[in-house]
Automatic annotation (TrEMBL):
The lineage of its organism: Eukaryota, Metazoa, Chordata, Craniata, Vertebrata. This is Zinc finger protein of the cerebellum 3. PANTHER family: GLIS FAMILY ZINC FINGER 2, TRANSCRIPTIONAL ACTIVATOR CUBITUS INTERRUPTUS. Belongs to the GLI C2H2-type zinc-finger protein family. Signal peptide: none annotated. Residues 49-76, 77-106, 107-136, 137-164 form the C2H2-type domain.
């Protein structure tokens, strides 16, 4: 169904096209030819019913055509690799997707000495936070910050598991921390006592990390 609303005089109520079509191709052809118009059109505005752009114009006709696919659901770009079956609304998205098949990673990390490469620029941008120490993803519940949104999502599970419990949050495992100091009650060398305690603790608790003893060396 075409939901395009043609411009009408101010004193007349707005009404969508409402024409129905038996195929996506027919709908797209109708919208392009009857509503979007030819090259003589300079006003590239989407008039689809309830479009969130609210009359904001595009700079070029092809951008309007690409946008209309959000409303029609048209996806004219199928992946050519056998057995994949994925289809896309934009050729740029298909180009990025095909790299999952070819292994192509044209976006190299711009930080000197780093050889990491990525299939798209957005992944490279996320990776750059590792070098800049920038942590833009902040937890609103405890003010901890992370370089990557996936780390923040994992951290949020700590709060979800706590629920309404007001006890201190357990370690999320995504930040470096200083291990607790073991205080000896006798006159032995504190460093030896701590190392011995760590060794015994690690031996009896397999859940601790393998390098737990190294914290006390």
């Amino acid at each position: 169904i075409c939901k395009w609303i043609d411009e009408v005089p101010i004193n007349r109520p707005k009404k969508s096209c409402e024409r129905t079509f038996s195929s996506m191709h027919e709908l797209v052809t109708h919208v392009t030819m009857e509503h979007v118009g030819g090259p003589e059109q300079t006003n590239h505005i989407c008039y689809w019913e309830e479009c969130p752009r609210e009359g904001k114009s595009f700079k070029a006709k092809y951008k309007l055509i690409n946008h209309i696919r959000v409303h029609t659901g048209e996806k004219p770009f199928p992946c050519p690799f056998p057995g994949c079956g994925k289809i896309f609304a934009r050729s740029e998205n298909l180009k990025i997707h095909k790299r999952t098949h070819t292994g192509e990673k044209p976006f190299k990390c711009e930080f000197e000495g780093c050889d990491r490469r990525f299939a798209n620029s957005s992944d490279r941008k996320k990776h750059m936070h590792v070098h800049t120490s920038d942590k833009p993803y902040i937890c609103k519940m405890c003010d901890k910050s992370y370089t990557h949104p996936s780390s923040l999502r994992k951290h949020m599970k700590v709060h979800e598991s706590q629920g309404s419990d007001s006890s201190p949050a357990p370690s999320s495992g995504y930040e470096s921390s200083t291990p607790p100091t073991h205080v000896s009650s006798n006159s032995e060398d504190p460093s030896k006592t701590s190392a011995s305690t760590a060794q015994n603790t690690a031996n009896h608790n397999p859940a601790l990390p393998p390098n737990f003893n190294e914290w006390y060396v």
